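During the no-cost extension, the postdoctoral fellow (Dr. R.K.) reprocessed legacy sequence entries with the updated structure-token encoder. One reprocessed record is reproduced below for audit purposes.
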Amino acid sequence: MTAGVVFDTYAWIEYIADAKHAGKISELLNGSRYKQKATPATAIAEITEKLFREGVVRSKIEQINRFIASKTSIIHCDNEVAFRAGELNSVQKKNIKDWGMLDSLNYAVARMLNCKFVTGDPHFRGFKDIIWIGQTTMK
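Re-encoded structure tokens follow.
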């Protein structure tokens, strides 16, 4: 049994945009079902880049990042995460079109922590321990 959840970039974008499935993310963030709630630092980088690209002002992006850090533990890319991500990436790039290293880094955090991975990214179809949310228009 997993003790926690790791929020992927897709999950945070869904939440930030108050999109169709933001309520599900809110339940996971605020509920007591999962004790550990984490976000990969690499997801923070993706979120930040997307928001800057969309013209969101720096102070608002900083506020969003502080909110994420207040609701979840931010997990940095250490040697174990990097190794797991590299191993996963070497396989997935052969099997999934447009698979990226950030997908591997984010998912590696969930595997390292033995947590469920909260995402709507179609790259993760067929992966284990996924909590699916609705698809966003991120890509």
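The two ends are 32 Å apart (CA to CA). The mean pLDDT is 93. The remaining legacy entries will be reprocessed before the final report is submitted.
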